[in-house]
Amino acid sequence: MLDIRLYMLQRLSALFMGPFVLIHIAVMIYAIQGGLSTGEILGRTQGSVTWFLFYAMFVIAVSVHSAIGLRVIVHEFLGLKGFALSTLTWTICVVLLFMGGRAVTAVTML
Amino acid sequence: MSDSVKLMDVAIWRGDATGGAYEHFEVPAQESQTILDVVSWIQQNQDANLTYRYACRVGMCGSCAMMVNETPRWTCRTHVKKVLDGNKLTVAPLRNLPVIKDLATDMDPFFDKWVEAEGVHHPSKTRDDAIELIDPKSSARVEASTGIECINCSICYAACDTVAGNTDYLGPAALQRSWTLYNDARDADKQGILDAVSGTGGCHNCHSQGSCAVHCPNDLNPMKAIAGLKRATAMSFLKNGR
Amino acid sequence: MKKTHRGHPLWFAYALHRASGLGLAVFLPFHFYILSMALTQPERLDYFLHFAENPLVKVAEFGLVFGLAIHMFGGLRLLAMEWLPWSDNQKTLAAAALAVSFLISVTFFLKAI
């Protein structure tokens, strides 16, 4: 159920996210050592413009990428199409953007 | 009772577009026997109502393609000994195509998509022009030639899970044909081909499962052709927006 | 090995890619929700992070990291296949993606326990 525009959006968001994923995994491998606490997380991210931008862009890219990916799965496995399929795609994107945005502000806001 | 003639338990799908079920037949095993031999034996000796297709019976026409033990195969080129499971065998009509009756499917959707994928030659010259010289070693011609042995047997179409899940998807064979024409120096409408494979049923739906390449009896690689179409459409999109 | 239209290496690569993508998409809302507690309910987040010390949770986290890595490296293989000139070693690349993902997630697990 992908035409060329959705395909390009999917592939480009994927390419864009590559470095973000690698950095995120690396940071997690570093941060998980010795356990994790809220204070530890916030101590690193709170008030940081860099982390805000990093995770904000990550959230935007993953929201678009997930919505399109789920669109394909829902179409191929559940047969959903047309208006219902597009509505679901947009809903997923918006929900992830909203929830992700909340998470990003929660860990970077002063 | 002689022990030397082995009897096989062959399950054949019987039915039509409204539905059906497997029917079991006992078929004597022979030393050298193909699935087509088995199906023909059943129709000639057990049930004259069994419907199936074949033509050349030597692996050139693709008409005899069916699902054998859930794998799409040319039945005339599949030795029973290679696929027999104990003494059991299952034969069913090709997947992903509407059934007409028993083992014969309606090939119309397959051919309609062939046309929809713009796998038709767009002439650039007339009969009054000189014949265009094509270098057989040019990379584009070599690439085109790797896909032209397709005989439209529909095995790749039956093997593909994306075809099963997405009714609009044009399928590996049709897209491979488009790629051969895209690489043909004589074709005058490359953009038309790219447009035709960029819609909601186009090449971008391929998930590169590769079942098409694994099962093609002619050892063709539609997955590779579709990757080529993706490359060409992506470049065109980034350059021209379509 | 008996060939069915499903049981071959590149089909497994597709299945893993789809399963990991689905898993990640389902996981994300929970991940975002829990992180957002850092602002509104930091004690609850701390409680959750403490609960996450449980070794079973560490195994689950290993699964998550593995899923993320396999989805990304598998995706990079697809991007290379589609946008770079064709190479015939797709099965090798798929195996390499699997191996690298496993290595990374095991590294995470060893640091986490």
CATH architecture verdict of chain C:
Up-down Bundle
Instruction: Give the distance, in angstroms, between the N- and C-terminal Cα atoms of chain C.
Output: 39 Å
Supply the CATH superfamily name of the largest domain in chain B.
Alpha-helical ferredoxin
SSE sequence of chain B, one letter per element: EEHEEHEEEHHHHHHHH
| Number of separate helices of chain C | 4
What is the H-and-E element order of chain C? HHHH
**Helical fraction of chain C:** over 70%
CATH class of chain C: Mainly Alpha
Q: Please state the average pLDDT score of chain B.
A: 94
Number of DSSP E strands of chain C: 0
Runs of chain B in which pLDDT lies below 50 for 5 or more consecutive residues are none
The total domain count of chain C is: 1
Under CATH, the homologous superfamily of chain C reads: Fumarate reductase/succinate dehydrogenase, transmembrane subunit
Overall pLDDT metric of chain C? 90
Instruction: Determine the structural class of chain B based on helices, strands and strand pairing.
Output: alpha+beta
CATH class label of the largest domain in chain B: Mainly Alpha
How many H/I helical runs of chain B?
Answer: 10
Tell me the total number of β-strands of chain B: 7
Helix content of chain B: 25-40%
